[in-house]
TrEMBL record:
PROSITE patterns: TAT. This is Tat (Twin-arginine translocation) pathway signal sequence. It comes from Duganella sacchari.
Length: 175
């Protein structure tokens, strides 16, 4: 099917207005917890809880209690990593999680029909893959932000280095 330039522009403008309206509705319904700092709570935490196990996959422990502890620790490390970013970047990350938590945006952009609580690994994997390879660079950047935050926060903790065979920094460099 051949799309005309005019149709393409109309769809793009309509999509931009839809995203802007969705973001405005989310901001009205969920005012930020604190005006200057990133707050990982409620819907944002639910998004992260769905994405972390898919991103980390086999490096997570298989035993349920250890897995739950690792997921909680990973979530906390992501939160701490975001808090170490400049305030403007923290706001952008907050907006990304807010967008993913918003029902219409979650359905349209992530392809997750139910809430993130009901999303299975297959749906989350499809969402991440679609954003990773999407033709819109904005979605690719959002994917890489999620990826870098989660993977970076996970491997920044020395307790996770054994899973990849990293012995740690050279002792000579620490002196």
């Amino acid at each position: 099917m051949q799309t005309s330039r005019r149709s393409f522009l109309k769809i793009g403008v309509a999509g931009a207005f839809t995203l802007a309206a969705g973001g405005a509705l989310y901001r009205l319904a969920h005012p930020p917890g604190s005006p200057n700092r990133f707050a990982l709570e409620g819907p944002a935490q639910t998004v992260l809880n769905a994405v972390i196990p898919v991103m980390l996959g086999p490096v997570l422990p298989a035993e349920p209690a250890a897995r739950a502890g690792a997921l909680t620790a990973a979530s906390q490390r992501v939160r701490d990593a975001v808090l170490g970013l400049p305030l403007a970047t923290q706001k952008e990350v907050q907006d990304l999680f807010g967008l993913l938590a918003l029902g219409p945006a979650r359905r349209l952009l992530a392809g997750v029909a139910g809430g993130w609580e009901q999303a299975d690994a297959r749906q989350v994997t499809a969402f991440l893959q679609s954003w990773r390879t999407h033709s819109l660079q904005t979605l690719q950047v959002a994917y890489h932000a999620l990826h870098d935050l989660i993977i970076g926060a996970w491997y920044a903790d020395p307790s996770t280095w054994d899973s990849i065979g990293y012995p740690g920094p050279l002792k000579e460099l620490l002196a």
